[in-house]
Write a structure and sequence with these properties.
- With about 240 residues, the protein is an alpha/beta fold.
- It has a domain of about 160 residues: P-loop containing nucleotide triphosphate hydrolases (Rossmann fold), CATH 3.40.50.
- The chain has a five-stranded parallel β-sheet with strand order 2-7-1-8-9, with helices on both faces. A four-stranded mixed β-sheet has the order 4-3-6-5.
- Helix 1 crosses helix 7 and helix 7 crosses helix 8.
- GO terms for molecular function: GMP kinase activity.
- Essential for recycling GMP and indirectly, cGMP.
- Pfam families: Guanylate_kin (PF00625).
């Protein structure tokens, strides 16, 4: 049986990588797609671990050859997911996690509407800016203009949260990890037709509380902190 495709998106600095690493340490049969990029490695990043680093010319050759499931240009650099990541996970019967931005997620959703989509939010702009500043400082340079551009980009990404099936707020790491684990477990149960018992019922309740359709009031203070109206937007469809 082919596995489930999980798409996880979040603004840069939301702690998404930490969540994904914690999830994979707890659950088996869960492959991770390492993205390709034309940007330079940062800090201790290694080719093939955080990203496959390549040249702009090679990336554009791969685009022309149809080798990407999705790709996008962000802040002057290309990022993309190779189609072979999905092919290999499917052949092995494993689930696959795509850690991609909103632009790339929309491309995959249009091709694979059955994918399980999860959006991760930072708790507020102040926390997000602190995380971004600490990351920049660790890389040796803090540029306030770049930080403000990333905050603006974060707000634009968060405005798309209704397009996702689930939404988590990464304010307390342990809780966010538990919610993410519950979402994956419940989607697997649905795929496999597993009946609910005392344990699985609790996971189901946690996952359901994270569905976008059930989260408007819970999300209100977080959205308002970014200047986003949590009310319904009839122009923006949900993908459920």
């Amino acid at each position: 049986m082919a596995g489930i495709l999980f798409i996880i998106s979040a603004p840069s600095g939301s702690g998404k990588s930490t969540l994904v690493n914690a999830l994979r340490s707890q659950l088996g049969r869960l492959d991770f797609s390492v993205s390709w990029t034309t940007r330079q490695p940062r800090g201790s990043e290694q080719n093939g671990r955080e990203y496959y680093f390549t040249t702009r010319e090679e990336f554009e050759r791969m685009i022309a050859a149809g080798e990407f499931l999705e790709h996008a240009e962000v802040f002057g650099n290309y990022y993309g997911t190779a189609q072979r990541s999905l092919d290999e996970a499917t052949a092995a019967g494993h689930d696959l996690i795509l850690d991609i931005d909103v632009q790339g997620a929309m491309q995959v959703m249009s091709k694979l509407p059955e994918a399980v989509t999860i959006f991760v939010m930072p708790p507020n702009p102040k926390v997000l800016k602190t995380r971004l500043r600490n990351r920049s400082r660790a890389e040796g340079e803090v540029n306030e203009d770049v930080l403000n551009r990333r905050l603006d980009a974060a707000k634009r990404e968060i405005e798309n949260y209704r397009r996702y099936r689930y939404i988590l707020v990464n304010d307390v790491l342990e809780r966010a990890v538990a919610q993410l684990e519950a979402v994956v477990a419940v989607e697997r149960m649905r795929r496999e037709g597993t009946p609910l018992d005392h344990r699985t019922k609790r996971e189901f309740e946690i996952a359901e509380s994270c569905r976008v359709v059930n989260s408007r009031e819970r999300l209100r203070p977080f959205l308002e902190s970014f200047g986003i109206d949590p009310g319904e937007d009839p122009q923006q469809p949900r993908l459920l």
